[in-house]
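Go through this chain.

——
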Amino acid sequence: MIRYALIAVAAVFAVACNSSPLQTPENTVGGANVVSSAKAPMKKGTTDITLDWGSKGQAGQVAIADVLSYGGSKLGITAPAGWQLIRDDSTPTTRQSLYWHAIEANDPSTPTWTFSEPVDAQGAILLLDNAAAAAPVDMSNVKTGSGGSIKSSSVTTTADGDVVLIFKATDFLNSPLLAQTPGDMSAVVTQDKAPHEYWILATWQSQNGTTEETEFSFPQLFNWVAAQVAIKHGSH
């Protein structure tokens, strides 16, 4: 277990190394790469949220959406046409819904998710090159909790060169954690200066195997969700 100091707080952000050899942020073994990301700010009491990938989307890429909603009962979510659910995990106050979509020519860059009732929502969207467009998700797993450390469960990948994405969300309401990205991971998205904080990190495997947990050891006072999703590479 390698430990990294957090900026501006007396806490530690600990990330376990992958059991298979890790690559640099540039995936040199032919696996998928995250090439773009964009965030949608918090909308209060909304019945929809749009995640805009801008002008960078290209046919053949895979988009990954992280839709975050807070408070109330587990209401219905309707995804845009062509978007497939990866997993949908929740606590009493924090819900993290992950989706994938293979981009086609002339796809709109502004997919919109709708909610059955008003809810507070925010989110992010990633674009990946060289992901398996027909079925990109290799494996996924999740942990949820109330208080304590935010930990994501390990996954056992079946394909070489997977990119492993870590999604963490919390309704943490105190000072921002301002986590420093570990040397063997890439910070894709950070939203750590708002009442509802979330992070998306990425790492890579050169060969299949079991990943280890990632952990924010700074204790949380409220509810959190932490998922790992391994994405398979496309054709070499």
Summary: The chain has one domain: 2-231. The mean pLDDT is 81.
